[in-house]
Predict the 3D structure of the following.
Amino acid sequence: MNHTPDTTIAGHGGNFGPQQAAALLGQTTQQARRKLAPSPPWLLATRAVAVLATLGAIWLSVRGQHPYHGPTAADSPILIAFVVLNFAATVAVRKRALAGVRGSTRLRPAEITVLVLAWAAAPVLMWALAANGVSFAWYPTTVLIVPGLAWAAVAARAGWRECGIGLAVAATGVAGAFAGPAGAWAVAGVGLCAVLLGQAAAVAWGQRRSVAGP
């Protein structure tokens, strides 16, 4: 006696054929991509508010300085801690986010080295500019130019979005050169906040598209 193969999945009451398998695979892939997204939109928005609050507070404390002396002793530890923690979190999250889902976007050790060297080169560039009498050498936004360009170069193969983030950060650094030493703090706060909010919106839009499907 021949038996017809039973393709019914127990407990689901339906047939599990090639189309269902493909749909399940697609759903699993979308869930993995959402979990491996660079950062969830809410976290990016939180960082945007934090950077605006931190740099905005420093701008309020220095805008009345004549001549300009820079952040006060109370501002410096907060700023240094924020920069170090934010940079470390960015590298760690992006290394995890760009690995596994698409091999071509894996953040390679050499690329991480480039990013670290870019941050190390930033103060060297600032010292060189200062030695040549460039007025914006020690503006807070000047430190963003080299790392921003480095990230744009490293992330270019990951797509226009990642490359655009680096270029936007570098553009914020350039814009600060025209705002004066005190105004550069406001430019940095507003510019980085805008970059993070834009990234949050882009990630949320991408997640919505992945859920909606083709």
